[in-house]
Design a protein that fits this description.
- The complex is a heterodimer of chains A (162) and B (716).
- Chain A has helices at residues 32-39, 96-103, 113-126, 132-138, 149-160; strands at 11-17, 20-26, 58-61, 64-67, 80-82.
- Chain A has 162 residues and is an alpha+beta fold.
- Chain A has two domains: 11-86, Roll (Ubiquitin-like (UB roll)); 96-160, [2Fe-2S]-binding domain (DNA polymerase, domain 1).
- Chain A has a five-stranded mixed sheet with strand order 2-1-5-3-4, with helices on one face.
- Chain A is globular, with a radius of gyration of 17 Å.
- With 716 residues, chain B is of the alpha+beta class.
- Chain B is globular, with a radius of gyration of 26 Å.
- Classes of the chains: A alpha+beta (162), B alpha+beta (716).
- At the A-B interface, helix 1, helix 2, helix 3, helix 4 and helix 5 of A face helix 1, strand 3, helix 3 and helix 17 of B.
C-alpha cells in the first residue's frame, strides 16, 4: 500500500487564533474543531459529538459563540477565533468565570468544561443572565453528562454580578 | 475543593485523544450494516483510492481479550475483524488510517460489504431470543438465586398483596468524552493514551490480544471525560489500532463517531421486573419476590445483580429472587451507573409506594416501619444502615408534612398538578485490593500513586485531602497519580469502590511512611526536615485488602484481573443508603413534566470530600430524573442495532431540565467497613431517584407508570 496524494482542492485561509495570526492551507471539508485540535494542538476545545448537539467544542468567532464542529474551517478566513486557551491570563491567572467554576464546583470530569466556560462568557456578554432560568436556557446547548448544572448556573450568576 | 479544577477550567487537562504527536495518522472505523450474519466480502478499493489514505485493514490476527466478567479484560469476548461473523449491527468490519481525519472519514464511508443475513432478536420477548436461568447457566455460589424462607407461601397468606410488572429500557451512558485515543510504539514498547476506568484491563488485555509481555505496554488515562461504566474494560478498537500503528511505524489516533459509540461499548441492558409484596393491613412487609429478566448478548453472559439490593431493602422475613438472562443480537451490555440498582429500585420502590397507597399509610412512615438493622439474607448485622435517618432528615428538609396524600390533590399557582414522591435506594459496599506508593521529597512534597482513575468523582481531591490532613501539610503539596500503569497497578475504578479502596490504601501507606520518616504515628509532620534527617527521599509501597481478602487478591490485581470484596464480609454486610424526595409539576395544557426541586440525603459513611460528594449526589439525581423522563435506547427492528444513536435523539438532561437539588449527608463513619470510615457514593446517589420521580408522578396524576421513560403521551 502507498500513500495517495494530498487532496487537489485546497483553500488558503488567514485568521487569528487567540490573537496570533495563522495561515492555513485547508481541505474545505475540515471542521474548525479538527483544525484547532489536530493542526494547532489547541486541545482544550473538546469533541463530544461532532454533530452540534453537545456544545463541548464551543469557541468564539469574532466574539460570537459557535460550535466549532459544525463550522467549516474555511469560514474563519479574516476572522478572530478565541478558544479556552485564551481565557486564562498570561501568567496563568484565572478569568473570573473560570474562578467561579472552581468556587461553585461547576465541573466533575471536566470534559465539557471548556465549552461551558466559552458559552458562559458569551451568555454574560449577550446579557442573558437576568435570572437563573434565563442562564439555564442560554446554557442548554452545552451538555454536562456528570450533571454539574447547579454549579454551572451558580458560577455564571457569580461572574455576571462582577 | 477539587485539586484538579484548575487544569479542567483552563483546558490543560489532557484526555485520551488530546495528544498531538509528530507524524500522527488518523484512523476511522467502518461498521457492519446488518443485524446478524456473515460478511462475505469487503470492498476497500474506493477507500484505498481516497487521497491521503495510508492503509485499510479488514482482518486482524488478534486473540480474544476475554470477557471482563469471565476472568478476561474486554467489555465483550468478541473481537471484531477476526473472522466473518457479524454478531450485531455496528460491529466494525474495517479500519482505515489516513493522513487527516477528513480523509479517514471519507475512506471509511466509501467501504462497502456483501453480507449473508440471518434473523436477529433485539427484544426480551423477540422470537429467537434465548432465555437462560442465571444460576443454572453460571453455577457459581454468588450468582445463586436469593431465597430466604418460602416467600410465595407467605405472600399468598397475606392480607395485602401487591403484584406489579415493570419494564426498563436499554440505555447508553454517553459520557461526553468519545471513546478513542492515541497509540504508538517505541521500538517494542506499546504506549496507549485512552480514556479508561481500567488501565489494567487495557494493558493486560492488549498483552493477551497481541501475544506480548504486559511489561512492554503502558497505559495512560490521567483524566477520563466521564466513564459511568462504559469505559470499564478494553474496548474493541484498541487492539486493531495497536496493530496498524506498528505496521505504519507512526502514532495513530482514533476517535469514534458519537453514533459509533452506541455499538462499540457496553450499555445498560433492557430488563423486566416482576415484584410481589405481601403485607399486613398496617403495611408491614412480610415477604417479597423479585423476578428479573435481563438482556445479554449471544456471545457473553452479562451477569444480573438486581436482587442483591432489593433483598436488603426492608426487614423481610422471606424473600425470593430469580434472575434470568435473555440472549439477543447486540454487543455485550454492561455496567452503566447503578447498573442493576436503579432499574430494580424503579420497580421495587414503586411497588412499595403502591402498598402505602393501598393500605392508606404515609409512604415515608411505611418505609420507616419496615426498616431493619439485620440483613435479611445472611442474618448478619449491617456495618451501618442509616436509611431511617436519611428518610427523617429528608422529610424535614423537604417539608413532607405538608403533603396531601390524595393523588391529584395538589396544585401549583399556574394550575400544574403537583406531585410529591419519595423512594429509598441502596448500593453494595465493595473494596478492592489496591497498591499505594507514597514518596516524601526533600522539598516537603508528598507524591501518592494509587489504584484509581479520575473520571469526575474527584479521586485526586479525596486522596490529597486525606494526606494533607494526616500530615498537616497544604493540599497543594500533595500530588496524586492515578490512571497510569507506569506508576502502579490500575485496578478497575467502578462499583463505587474507588474512595473506599484508595483511601484505606493511602491511609495504610501514611502509617508506613511515618515509620520510615521516623516521626510519630499521629500529628503534624515537617516533611522536608524529616526527609533531610533521612538523607534521601523516602518511598514506601503498601498493598491493601478488603475485609476478609487474602493476599491472592493482590496477585489478581497485579495481573490485571478484578479483586473485589463485598458486600458480605466476615461478620457484617455493608451497603450505602439514600432517600430521595422529589416534587414534580405536570403542566395543565402540555402535560410536560418538570422537576422543580429534589431533596436527597445519603448515608455514605464519613463524607471524605464534602464539595465533590455533594456534586456526585446531584449528578446521580440528574441521572435518575433523566432515566425517569428522558433516556431510552430504541432498537431498529428493520436492520438491527440501536436506532437513536445521537445526542439529539438520545436526549439526556440539559441545564434547563435541572432546578433545585438539595443534598445532605448523615456523615457517620463506618469504621467496621474500613479504617477511614467511608462508603461508596457515586452510584447510590442515583438509586431510587427514578422511582421517586415516578412516585411523584403517581401522586400528581393518580397514574402508575410501569415502564420508563414517562413521556408526555403517557400522562395525557
Amino acid at each position: 500500500m502507498s500513500t495517495n496524494d494530498v487532496p487537489a482542492t485546497t483553500v488558503d485561509v488567514t485568521c487569528t487564533v487567540n490573537g496570533e495570526p495563522v495561515q492555513l492551507r485547508l481541505d474545505p471539508r475540515e471542521s474548525l474543531l479538527d483544525v484547532l485540535r489536530e493542526r494547532l494542538a489547541l486541545t482544550g476545545t473538546k469533541k463530544g459529538c461532532d454533530q452540534g448537539h453537545c456544545g463541548a467544542c464551543t469557541v468564539h468567532l469574532d466574539g460570537r459563540r459557535v460550535v466549532s464542529c459544525l463550522t467549516p474551517a474555511v469560514q474563519v478566513d479574516g476572522l478572530q477565533v478565541h478558544t479556552i486557551e485564551s481565557v486564562t491570563g498570561p501568567d496563568g491567572e484565572l478569568h473570573p468565570l473560570q474562578q467561579a467554576f472552581v468556587d461553585n464546583d461547576a465541573l466533575q470530569c471536566g470534559y465539557c468544561t471548556p465549552g461551558q466556560i466559552m458559552s458562559g462568557l458569551a451568555c454574560i456578554a449577550e446579557g442573558h443572565t437576568a435570572d437563573d432560568d434565563e442562564i439555564r436556557e442560554y446554557l442548554s446547548g452545552n451538555v454536562c453528562r456528570c450533571g454539574a448544572y447547579v454549579g454551572i448556573v451558580a458560577a455564571v450568576r457569580q461572574a455576571a454580578q462582577r | 475543593m477539587r485539586v484538579d479544577a484548575y487544569d479542567k477550567v483552563t483546558g490543560k487537562a489532557l484526555y485520551g485523544a488530546d495528544r498531538v504527536l509528530p507524524g500522527m495518522a488518523f484512523a476511522a472505523l467502518a461498521l457492519a450494516k446488518i443485524g446478524r450474519g456473515r460478511v462475505s466480502g469487503v470492498d476497500t478499493s474506493a477507500a484505498l483510492a481516497v487521497p491521503g489514505v495510508l492503509l485499510v485493514e479488514t482482518k486482524f490476527d488478534l486473540a480474544s481479550p476475554g470477557f471482563l466478567m469471565g476472568g478476561g479484560f474486554g467489555f465483550q469476548s468478541l473481537q471484531p475483524m477476526t473472522d466473518d461473523h457479524i454478531a450485531y449491527r455496528g460491529q466494525p468490519i474495517a479500519i482505515v488510517v489516513a493522513e487527516t481525519p477528513v480523509a479517514a472519514t471519507e475512506a471509511a464511508e466509501a467501504i462497502t460489504a456483501e453480507y449473508e443475513e440471518e434473523p436477529f432478536a433485539l427484544h426480551l420477548d423477540s422470537e429467537g431470543a434465548t432465555t437462560l436461568v442465571q444460576e443454572e447457566a453460571i453455577p457459581l455460589p454468588f450468582l445463586a438465586d436469593i431465597k430466604v424462607g418460602d416467600a410465595d407461601a407467605v405472600i399468598d397468606s397475606c392480607a395485602v398483596r401487591i403484584e406489579e410488572t415493570f419494564e426498563h429500557p436499554p440505555q447508553h451512558a454517553v459520557p461526553m468524552e468519545l471513546n478513542g485515543g492515541v497509540v504508538w510504539w517505541q521500538d517494542d514498547r506499546l504506549i496507549v493514551h485512552e480514556g479508561t476506568q481500567n488501565a489494567n484491563a487495557v494493558r493486560f488485555g492488549l498483552a493477551q490480544q497481541l501475544g506480548i509481555d504486559a511489561e512492554l505496554i503502558e497505559v495512560h488515562s490521567p483524566y477520563v471525560g466521564g466513564g459511568f461504566g462504559q469505559k470499564n474494560s478494553l474496548l474493541v478498537h484498541i487492539g486493531p489500532l495497536a496493530v496498524v500503528s506498528r505496521r505504519l511505524g507512526r502514532p495513530v489516533k482514533l476517535v469514534l463517531a458519537r453514533t459509533q459509540t452506541f455499538h462499540n461499548g457496553s450499555f445498560r441492558p433492557a430488563t423486566k421486573h416482576r415484584i410481589r409484596l405481601g403485607a399486613d393491613a398496617t403495611g408491614r412487609i412480610l415477604a417479597a419476590v423479585h423476578e428479573v429478566d435481563q438482556q445479554t448478548s449471544r456471545h457473553d453472559l452479562f451477569i444480573a445483580g438486581h436482587t442483591e439490593v432489593t433483598s436488603r431493602l426492608y426487614g423481610f422475613s422471606a424473600f425470593r429472587g430469580r434472575q434470568r438472562l435473555v440472549q439477543t443480537d447486540v454487543q455485550t451490555p454492561g455496567y452503566m451507573r447503578a447498573p442493576f440498582e436503579s432499574p430494580s429500585m424503579f420497580a421495587f420502590e414503586q411497588a412499595v409506594d403502591e402498598l402505602a397507597h393501598t393500605v392508606g399509610r404515609d409512604p415515608v412512615q411505611l418505609r420507616l416501619d419496615n426498616d431493619t438493622e439485620t440483613d435479611p439474607v445472611t442474618g448478619l448485622p449491617f456495618s451501618s444502615r442509616h436509611v431511617g435517618d436519611c428518610l427523617r432528615r429528608g422529610a424535614e428538609l423537604f417539608g413532607w408534612s405538608g403533603r396531601n396524600p390524595e393523588p391529584g390533590s395538589m396544585r401549583a399557582e399556574d394550575g400544574s398538578l403537583v406531585g410529591w414522591g419519595v423512594a429509598i435506594g441502596n448500593y453494595p459496599g465493595s473494596i478492592v485490593a489496591a497498591n499505594a506508593t507514597l514518596t516524601a521529597s526533600a522539598d516537603g512534597r508528598v507524591t501518592v500513586a494509587v489504584d484509581g482513575h479520575e473520571m469526575g468523582q474527584g479521586i485526586r481531591s479525596t486522596v490529597a485531602l486525606l494526606v494533607a490532613r494526616d500530615l498537616g501539610i497544604p493540599v497543594a503539596d500533595v500530588t496524586v497519580q492515578v490512571g497510569d500503569t507506569t506508576v502502579g497497578t490500575q485496578h478497575l475504578t467502578a462499583g463505587s469502590w474507588g474512595t473506599a479502596t484508595a483511601l484505606p490504601a493511602v491511609h495504610s501507606g501514611l502509617q508506613e511512611l511515618r515509620k520510615h520518616l521516623n516521626v510519630a504515628d499521629t500529628g503534624d509532620v515537617d516533611v522536608a526536615s524529616a526527609v533531610a534527617d533521612a538523607g534521601h527521599a523516602v518511598q514506601v509501597s503498601v498493598g491493601s485488602l478488603g475485609p476478609g481478602q487474602t493476599a491472592d487478591a493482590l496477585a489478581q490485581t497485579n495481573t490485571g484481573h478484578l479483586a473485589i470484596s463485598g458486600p458480605v464480609f466476615p461478620g457484617f454486610v455493608t451497603f450505602s443508603w439514600i432517600a430521595h424526595f422529589v416534587e414534580v409539576h405536570v403542566e395543565p395544557t402540555t402535560c410536560r413534566i418538570r422537576v422543580p426541586r429534589v431533596v436527597s440525603v445519603a448515608d455514605c459513611g464519613r463524607v471524605a470530600s464534602p464539595v465533590t460528594a455533594a456534586s456526585q449526589v446531584r449528578g446521580g439525581v440528574i441521572w435518575g430524573i433523566g432515566a425517569a423522563l428522558r433516556e431510552e435506547s430504541m432498537v431498529d427492528d428493520r436492520v438491527g442495532g440501536f436506532l437513536n444513536t445521537t445526542l439529539e435523539e438520545y436526549p439526556v438532561m440539559v441545564n434547563a431540565d435541572v432546578h433545585r437539588i438539595d443534598v445532605d449527608f448523615i456523615d457517620k463513619p463506618d469504621y467496621q467497613f474500613n479504617p477511614v470510615g467511608v462508603k461508596g457514593l457515586g452510584e447510590v446517589s442515583m438509586v431510587g431517584a427514578a422511582a421517586a420521580v415516578a412516585n411523584a408522578v403517581h401522586h400528581a396524576t393518580g397514574r402508575r407508570h410501569h415502564r420508563l421513560p414517562i413521556r408526555i403521551e403517557h400522562v395525557l
